[in-house]
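Intended use. Records like the one below are meant for learning the mapping from a protein sequence to its folded structure. Do not use them to infer anything beyond what is encoded.
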Amino acid sequence: MHKLKSVKAVPRSLYTLKLAWCDGRVDRVDMSDVIHTYKLFTPLRGNPKLFRAVRVVDGGLGIAWTRAMDYSAESLHRLADSQRQTSGETSQRAESGCEWITFDRDFARFPGLKWQRPTAPSSS
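Structure written out for the chain above:
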């Protein structure tokens, strides 16, 4: 079982959290896909003040923004592991000249990676 020690929204990054685990591990997790996929998280979309209000709950077993809007530590740990693997792939893609489309400005930390924010489709 994975338990969180602390959570904090990463400044100047739209949906990224810095997680400190009780075992000493520290992760950065991009929550963009979660927030834009599940209706439960609709209030977080475009609401940085609410996103920054995240806190650890249930003795480290999860995080929450409100009583009804939470996410388990186990799910966060799996997401962090998945993104860590993707981070290595991101470095490789930066070297090959690929461009990423993402809401997360945190990709700016990868030197040489071309990225841009998605735009809404134009209505014709």
